[in-house]
Automatic annotation (TrEMBL), chain A:
Known cofactor(s): FAD
InterPro entries documented for this protein: DHS-like_NAD/FAD-binding_dom, ETF_a/b_N, ETF_a/FixB, ETF_asu_C, Rossmann-like_a/b/a_fold
Gene3D superfamilies named among the record's database cross-references: HUPs, TPP-binding domain
Described purpose of this protein according to its UniProt entry: The electron transfer flavoprotein serves as a specific electron acceptor for other dehydrogenases. It transfers the electrons to the main respiratory chain via ETF-ubiquinone oxidoreductase (ETF dehydrogenase).
Annotated source species: Arthrobacter horti
Family: Belongs to the ETF alpha-subunit/FixB family.
Subunit (UniProt): Heterodimer of an alpha and a beta subunit.
Annotated protein name in UniProt: Electron transfer flavoprotein subunit alpha/FixB family protein
Transmembrane feature ranges: none
Lineage: Bacteria, Bacillati, Actinomycetota, Actinomycetes, Micrococcales
Highest taxon of the lineage: Bacteria
Residue ranges constituting the Electron transfer flavoprotein alpha/beta-subunit N-terminal domain according to the UniProt record: 4-175
UniProtKB/TrEMBL annotation, chain B:
Electron transfer flavoprotein alpha/beta-subunit N-terminal domain ranges (all copies): 23-219
Organism from which the protein derives: Arthrobacter horti
SUPFAM superfamilies linked: Adenine nucleotide alpha hydrolases-like
A Pfam family it matches: ETF
Required co-factors: FAD
InterPro entries: ETF_a/b_N, ETF_b, ETF_beta_N, Rossmann-like_a/b/a_fold
Entry keyword annotation includes 4Fe-4S: no
Protein name: Electron transfer flavoprotein subunit beta
Gene3D superfamilies named among the record's database cross-references: HUPs
Family: Belongs to the ETF beta-subunit/FixA family.
């Protein structure tokens, strides 16, 4: 069996669903241990998902940028003898993965959607135009894995905690974090996790009300085009596309969005796409499974009304 | 201040893009300067101009690694406002992954630094073909410099660089000593276009070609040989086809819900 190291950051001692997924995926590949930053009490939660050892980071690590984080993970790799490292697919995790790759001479594969026991990592490239299988050639393979790679399941073990100390040199070239503030949460599902997304663009003209109403009735996340976020109608976190979040939900409802190439790059691998646009020539219709040429301010509220009626 | 901007020559996303050949590499025939690297160039030009530009002793240098055609990305960078360009090109570089690319770029930067130390390297948040965001961070690690990624603002004060960024649901401020590597998002500025004056001025600017041996690298360290990842298989996703398009006749909202119910999405 190979040893697998899962990198987890937990601000509050709990595990997010995609972290539970990483641990579950790790178990399908070998013996799992965890490199844990943040609240060390998350080690208990990790043990519930099969992590036999949790290597915990010095508290000061949170005040430093990616290279210090990578130095910590590299130390955990050496202690655990891991041949595979799994990280989340966030910006911060990709930075850690990148630097870890250089430190270990390890191949790094990002945006992995599934990972086989033989190390074959499936991912899509060129904005979803191709599905590829990538492999790492180094002694260690580093993967950043997207949400939903597996269904999370518990497999409790007796977990052990090992504190890792780092030499001064680990912090030498790291950027310092002067401040870090969590942005307020909307209460809706996160874009990268959501099964359904309702997204609005310039066509909402400053009013996300009808988009949000439909989203809440569907239990959906709210997405947006760059025009909508640039105008400040909704937070940048909601931007879908090349420079926003890349999503692949079961259902993407696009309202008042033309379907520019950079928007499509973030949503065209959705299972079902519905588009509402007043311009019948809008490019978004070329990739829509169901398109409505019409005014979103008529169509969305009517759909919400119908959903409410059906729910009784 | 001496700033090097990393510019990549990438297939134009307005056309269909293809993978081919043994290593499933990207076909680069219809290629352009990666649009996300225009933000890096603009950020460098603004930092330089705020300090008096070239007259104030500042320089902005464009660096690319890529085949012959990549000279066009340098040319465009010079037209937009970079002072000079470096083009690392060698047949052995084809098929380089992020590890090999960052190694080659670090060697090129060491070569450029022989003419005077570099203060800052700025890249884009991701290349529009590789899309990994790995290269700038790996480059920083190879140089032993700090990395500040995904900046939506960048300021230099004395020998320190400060970056604001919004990532993973957090607003952060990062700071490091120079030299450093920064990557910037499309939130940071509004890139300028080459104007007539810039296009004329670019004709007098220099592009320095660099070969692998000039940067001191062996062919086996880069390209498919030096890469730590391989693309074993590549399958083109079937193009999405248009489904049913209706025009609203006053009941499209209801039809939408009927469609969702038929698809078992509600
Ligand atoms: C480097 C770069 C990166 C980018 N990254 C992204 C990205 O990540 N995500 C992204 O989305 N964009 C991105 N863009 C921007 C992209 O090019 C487009 O400009 C943007 O997606 C357009 O947004 P939109 O569709 O909302 O606006 P528009 O293109 O203006 O389209 C608005 C649409 O709304 C329709 N409409 C208007 N009123 C109504 C109504 N009442 N009812 C129904 N329909 C109506 C119109 O017919 C039109 O089709 C990027 C651009 C660049 C250069
Ligand atoms: N071949 C290259 N030549 C110059 N710069 C590059 C090259 N590859 C990547 N970069 C830089 O690294 C950034 C991120 O690219 P990537 O890691 O491929 O997503 C790009 O926006 C460029 O600034």
């Amino acid at each position: 069996m190979t040893n697998v190291l899962v990198v987890i950051t937990s601000p509050d001692g709990t595990l997010k669903k995609n972290q539970q997924e990483l641990l579950t995926l790790g178990r399908s590949l070998g013996d799992v241990s965890v490199a844990l930053t943040g609240d060390a009490s998350a080690a208990a939660a990790a043990a519930a998902y099969g992590a036999s050892v949790s290597y915990t980071a010095p508290e000061s690590l949170g005040s430093y940028g990616a290279s210090a984080q990578a130095a910590f993970v590299a130390e955990a790799v050496s202690r655990s003898g891991a041949a595979t490292v799994l990280l989340e697919n966030t910006v911060a995790a990709k930075e850690t993965a990148a630097i870890l790759g250089v430190k270990l001479g390890a191949g790094v594969v990002t945006d992995v959607v599934s990972l086989a026991a033989d190390g074959a990592a499936t991912k899509s490239v060129l904005a979803g135009a191709y599905t590829t299988v990538a492999r790492s050639r180094g002694a260690v393979a580093v993967h950043t894995v997207k949400s939903h790679a597996v269904e999370p399941s518990e497999a409790p073990v007796e977990g052990r905690v090992e504190a890792v100390e780092l030499p001064e040199s680990a912090f030498a070239t790291a950027a310092r974090v002067l401040s870090r503030e969590a942005k307020p949460k909307s209460g809706r599902p996160e874009l990268s996790e959501a099964r359904i997304i309702v997204a609005g663009g310039r066509g909402v003209d400053g009013d996300f009300g009808p988009v949000e109403e439909l989203a809440d009735l569907l239990g959906a996340a709210v997405g947006a085009s760059r025009v909508a976020t640039d105008n400040g109608w909704i937070g940048h976190d909601s931007q879908v596309g090349q420079t926003g979040v890349v999503v692949s939900p079961q259902l993407y409802i696009s309202a008042g969005i033309s379907g520019a190439i950079q928007q499509k790059a973030g949503m065209q691998t959705s299972r079902v796409i519905v588009a509402i646009n007043s311009d019948e020539d809008a490019p978004v219709f070329e990739i829509a499974d169901f398109g409505i040429v019409g005014d979103l301010f008529q169509v969305l509220p009517q759909a919400s009304e119908e959903l409410r009626r059906r729910k009784g | 201040m001496k700033i090097v901007v990393l510019v990549k020559h990438v297939p134009d996303a307005q056309f269909d893009r293809h993978l081919s050949g043994p290593g499933n590499t990207v076909d680069r025939s219809e290629s352009i300067l990666s649009e996300l690297d225009e933000y890096a160039l603009e950020a460098a030009l603004q930092l330089s101009e705020a300090r008096g530009g070239e007259k104030g002793g500042n320089s902005v240098i464009a660096l690319t690694m890529g085949p012959d055609g990549a000279a066009n990305s340098i040319k465009k960078s010079l037209q937009i406002g970079a002072g000079e360009g470096y083009h690392l090109s060698d047949a052995a570089l084809a098929g380089s992954d992020a590890a090999a690319t960052s190694l080659a770029l670090s060697a090129a930067l060491n070569r450029i630094a022989q003419d005077g130390p570099i203060d800052l390297v700025i890249g884009g948040m991701a290349s529009t073909d590789g899309e990994t965001s790995l290269v700038p961070a790996q480059l920083a690690e190879r140089l032993g410099w700090a990395y500040l990624g995904h900046a939506k603002s960048v300021d230099v004060d004395g020998d320190s660089v400060t970056v604001n960024r919004e990532v993973d649901g957090h607003a952060e401020i990062l700071q490091a000593s120079l030299p450093a590597v920064v990557s910037v998002t499309d939130q940071i500025n509004e890139p300028r276009y080459p104007n007539f004056k810039g296009i004329i001025a670019a004709k007098r600017k220099k592009t320095h070609p660099l070969s692998l041996s000039e940067v001191g690298l062996d062919a086996s360290a880069v390209g498919t040989q030096g890469s730590l990842t391989v693309l074993d298989e590549a399958q083109e996703r079937p193009a999405r086809t248009q489904g049913t398009i209706i025009t609203d006749e006053g009941d499209a909202g209801i039809k939408l819900v009927e469609f969702l119910a038929a698809e078992k999405l509600i």
